[in-house]
UniProtKB/TrEMBL annotation, chains A, B:
Gene3D superfamilies: Aspartate Aminotransferase, domain 1, Type I PLP-dependent aspartate aminotransferase-like (Major domain). The lineage of its organism: Bacteria, Pseudomonadati, Pseudomonadota, Betaproteobacteria, Burkholderiales. This is Kynureninase. The modification N6-(pyridoxal phosphate)lysine is found at K220. Pyridoxal 5'-phosphate binds at T97, S98, F125, P126, T127, D128, T165, D194, H197, Y219, W249, T275. Pathway: Cofactor biosynthesis; NAD(+) biosynthesis; quinolinate from L-kynurenine: step 2/3; Amino-acid degradation; L-kynurenine degradation; L-alanine and anthranilate from L-kynurenine: step 1/1. SUPFAM superfamilies: PLP-dependent transferases. The keyword Hydrolase applies. Its EC number is 3.7.1.3. It comes from Paraburkholderia bengalensis.
Amino acid sequence: MMVQQAVSATGAPDVFASTRERFLIPDGVRYFDGNSLGLMPRVVQLHASNVITHEWGLGLIHSWHEAEWRTLPQRAGAKIARLIGAKPTEVVACDSTSVNLFKVVVSAVRLRPGRKTIVTDADAFPTDLYIVDQVAKLFGLTVVAVPAARIIENLNADVAAVVLTHVDYRSAEIYDMHAFTQASHRAGALIVWDLSHTAGGVPCDLNACEADFAVGCGYKYLNGGPGAPAYLYVAERHANDCEQPLAGWFGHARPFDFAPDYRPAEGTSRFLCGTHPVIGLSVLSRALDLFDGVPLEALRERSLQLTQRFIERVDAQLAPHGFVVASPRAASLRGSHVSLRHPEGYGVMQALAARKFIGDFRMPDYMRFGFAPLYNTQEEVAELVDAIDDIMRRREWDKPAFQQRRDFT
Amino acid sequence: MMVQQAVSATGAPDVFASTRERFLIPDGVRYFDGNSLGLMPRVVQLHASNVITHEWGLGLIHSWHEAEWRTLPQRAGAKIARLIGAKPTEVVACDSTSVNLFKVVVSAVRLRPGRKTIVTDADAFPTDLYIVDQVAKLFGLTVVAVPAARIIENLNADVAAVVLTHVDYRSAEIYDMHAFTQASHRAGALIVWDLSHTAGGVPCDLNACEADFAVGCGYKYLNGGPGAPAYLYVAERHANDCEQPLAGWFGHARPFDFAPDYRPAEGTSRFLCGTHPVIGLSVLSRALDLFDGVPLEALRERSLQLTQRFIERVDAQLAPHGFVVASPRAASLRGSHVSLRHPEGYGVMQALAARKFIGDFRMPDYMRFGFAPLYNTQEEVAELVDAIDDIMRRREWDKPAFQQRRDFT
C-alpha cells in the first residue's frame, strides 16, 4: 500500500499530518484535552497485546531479561530526556508524579541541611502542595507558598528548595526556567520543576538552565495512557549525592543480590523504588516513539500556531459573549493549552461535550483547551470557536442537563 | 458448545481443574514460579484490549466516570480483601509494595509518638528492610532487625511498630499472625504484615487477628501481570487517625475540588497518592475474578496437597542426591512454595529451565518452587521431581551453559 505523504503549504513534508494519522480519533470527536489525557496512539493496541500475550503469557519470568523489562524505566526515561533537554541517563520513568515529587523534594532538602524553608507556588496543582507540605512536616521545615511572581523575592539563605511548575495547569503561563533556576542557585537553594504540562507540548532545556530536579506526568502530551507512569529527572552532578526516601529494591545497585543493606544504584536509577508496572510502562515507552523525527522547534511552532489562532478567533467571535482569555497573549509565556474564563463556563463545556468537542473544566470557571501539536489542527480550532459561538447564541449552556454538576477529570 | 465439567476423585466438581483451564500455559511448560510472577489469565488479553481501545481510545477522559476508572483501587482492593480476611473497604490496590510499605510504616509510627524502635525480621525480603531503614531515619528511630523467632522477646514499651512478612520469601515458613499481632499489641506496638507470598496462595485472617496494617504484591499468586499494582490494608479502627506521608491528590476527600489544603478521604482511600495506573490496575482487577467461587479452605487444602506431595517425593527420590528441604515440614507452618537447598542448585535450575520446568533461584543456594493452587497439579509435581532426578543422574547441571551466572528475577 502506498503511504500518501502529507505536505504543508510550503510543499515541505508535514510531519504533523503524519503524526495525527498515528492516533485513534473517534468519529466526530474534536479533542482538546491532550493536556489531561492524551489520545491513544494506534500502535499501542498491538504493542500491549504483544506485551501481555507474548512477553508475559508465553515468555513468563524470562521476559525480565529477554524482553528487557528490567531496563524499561531507563529506556522510557531516555526518550523523555530529549523532550526536556536532559541527558538520556538523567531521566527514569516510574511511579506517579506525586510519588516522584516526594522523592526529589526529600533529596533536595537533604542536600541543603540546616536550611529550613521550601518556597513554592501557592497556585500550583494541589497535589504538589500536599506533597511539599508532607516533606516539610517530616523535616521540620516551613513552606512559603506565594504566587509565582513573588517567589524570587522570597529567596534567601534559609531556603533549601524551590518547587515550581513550569507551565501553570490553569493559565498555561510558562515560568522562566532559566531565571527561576539561576535565582534559586544564587540563594544557594535547589530547584524542582514540575513538567507535567510541559513535556511533549512545550520544549524546555533543563541542562541549559542547570535545573537540579524535575518530575512530570506520562499521560498528558506524552500519550502514555490513563494513569501512565510518570518520570523524574535528576541532574547528573547531584544524582550520586542523593539519598531518596523510597529506597526500594529496584533502586539498589544489585537488586538480585538480595543484600540486607541498601546500596543505591549509580545515577538517576537510584530513584527507582518497587517493581515497575511493566504493561503501563511499556505502553508509555512505545507511545513516546511518536515523537521520533519531530524536531522540537517544529513542535513549539506548531503549538504556538494553534494557540495563537485560537486566541485570535476568541477575540473576534467570543469576546462579545463575555469570554476572557485567561492565558498569556505573549507567545513566549504561553504553554500548549489556552484557558478561557466565563461565568457559564461549566454549562458551555457540557454543551460542547454533547457535540463531541472535548476540553475540560477547572474550578471555579476555567475552560481549558489543550492543543497537542502531534494531532490537533487549525481546522479543529476554527470548528471549536464556531461551536462555542453557536452554543452561546442558542443559550444551550442553560439546559438543565448541562448544569448538572459532576467532576471533570 | 458444551463445557465439560471436571470432577475430582470424589466425584465432586473439581474447581481447580476449571481454574487451571483459565490460564495460558505455554506448550510444554511446567510452571512453578507463580510465587514470583503468576501465569496470565486468558481473559486479560481481551480485557486489556478493551480497556485500551474502547475505554481509553474511544471513551477518552469520560472513562474516568463511565468505565469507573475512578474506583478501580477500591474495587480491586475489595476483591483482595476476601483473600486476606479484611473488610472490602479496608483494602485499596495502588502503587508498589515498597511504596505502600512506606505509607503504612510511617502511619504506624505516627500513631505511636514517643516510641523510638521498629522491630523487624532481619531475613525479610530486602526491600522491606530498606524501606524500614528510611522510615527510621526520617523519624529518628532505631531498627532492631532480628530473626523472626526473636522478635517477640524484643518487644517492649519503646517499640512503635513491628514489620513482619507472613510467609518467608525463601523458606515459605508461615509466621503466626495471631501470636505476633497479639504480642505486639501487648507491648503497645502496632504491626505491619507483608502478605506478598500469602494472598492467593495461603488464606489469612487479618480481621480475626486484629492486625493493624498490611501490604502485598499483585503479581505473584494474584496473577496481575508483571509489576502489577500492589495493595495495602489498614484496619478500619485506625484509618481515620492515620496521616500518610504520600499525600497525593487521589487520597484527598474531594480531589476534583483542587483545594490547596489537603483533607484526607475517609478510611483506607486516604492511602491513595497519585493518579493510579488504569491499564495495569484494570488487568489486576480482572485477574482477581479467577478466585470467584473458590472457597478459601479448598485453596489452602489444594496448596498443602501439592507441597506435601512434593516434599514426599523429594525425600524419596532426591535426598540421595543431596537435596535438603528448606521449608517447614509441618503443614501449619508451610506456605505455598517449597525451597530446596543444594550446592549445585544454580546449575540444576538452569538445566530445569532448558527442559521448560520454571522455578526460581535465590542466593546462595535456594531453589524455589511455587505451587499455585489455581493452576498447578499433582502430575506436574511428579514430573518436576523426575526431571530433577534425571538431571542429577546425567550431571546436566555441570554443563558450562548452565553454570553461566545471570540474575533470576
